[in-house]
Amino acid sequence: MAKKTAYETAMEQLDLVGKRMGLSETVIEQLREPERSLKVRFPVRMDDGKVKTFTGYRVQHNSALGPTKGGTRIHPEESYQDVVALSFWMTIKNALAGIPAGGAKGGIVADTLKLSDSELERVCRKYVREIRLVMGTRKDIPGPDIGTPQKIMGWFIDEYEQCLGEHEPGALAGKPPLLGGSLARNKATGTGLVYVLERYLGLQGEKVEGKTVAVQGFGNLGGTAAQILEGKGAKVIGIADVSGAWYNPAGMNVRDGREYAAQNKVLSGWAGGDVISMEEFFALDCDVLIPAAIQSQIRGDNVEQVKAKIVIEGANGPTTPEAEEYLLGHGVVLIPDIVANVGGAVTSYFEMVQDLYMYFWSEAEVLERLQKHMVGVFDGVWQVAQEKGVPLRIAAWMIALDKIVQAMEMRGRF
Ligand code: NAD
Asked: I want to staple 225 with a disulfide (CB 3.0 to 4.6 A). Which of 6, 190, 230, 240 is the partner?
């Protein structure tokens, strides 16, 4: 069976919720495609003296609620359609979280594992040069995503400000704090996910402590979430990254795994658990499964193996619609991406607010505001889900689409 693309998943979700909400075809048609897409091709000199041409995208999906905003992904399999889907999810996510911004996403087709540091820097700087005309605090604010940690955001803002000839830190999220970044931004998405999980468990009279957890994706989001959960007494029995999957029924030493991955770029060769296949990873008998890598990981062909009681989506679109239907039909609680991973977007927004005021908050202040925000978002979604008897994802989309459609109507867009 062909793997469902992120775009196909996003469109199915839109059609499903759009129909339920009675949205007109005119509105759905506008949401199906982004407002503006930029494809760039740029030459970069490699360390061996040869020139290689790279492809990048910046897609601005919908600006009804404000300047567009969303991360930048560097991945070898990045495609225009994937970036469109991700930009669309950002529109929904920002609206749900009450962030005064529309949705956007960027991508560079490249394998960071195959580039030297200086090659990667040249690729990033060229990309920013190419997209800078559509960037800006009042236009479109890129941020981090897969393959774009803080160090890369430092190159991004430097290139942007050099081209502009002035400082404008608010035009980019996820910068190092000394360059105008928010404290705690680099751990915000993983921390936010844990706040949401704790809130859900709290409503059930349960705690994180003692829960068994499996995390796919061991980067910024998955690594942070796993470490916090371990610190709160959960047992992380499975972790996986692009290089493989590991299982340890006694619980992993997550910090050790993170240090190993930081030094070696991937977990390959790590001795912290037994090596298992990705099929075995998704079949692990655990309380909580956190897909925190890439899209379309829990699908029609592997969902029947999933034994977790709670799936909390860290990655964007990791569960295809048919897999979701199966999980919900089998009593699994699915906390959707746009609720669980919105902490990064929220803190990017906090970063912009701090940049505009040039007044910065302490880490404790950022995390306190983040927790309040995440709990507020989750509670709103939970309430609508209970009232309308719909799954959490549908409830979240209904809240978000209602705001977007109202803003589109006020702007006379239909
Ligand atoms: P990252 O680059 O820090 O880490 C990505 C991790 O996923 C790595 O461990 C990598 O090895 C693993 N991975 C990549 N491809 C894989 C594959 N095919 N199979 C298994 N593992 C694979 O990225 P991140 O920031 O942690 O982002 C992870 C996910 O979270 C993405 O879907 C991203 O869109 C989403 N997300 C991130 C943020 C953020 O602020 N960082 C915010 C919202 C959503």
From this structure: 190
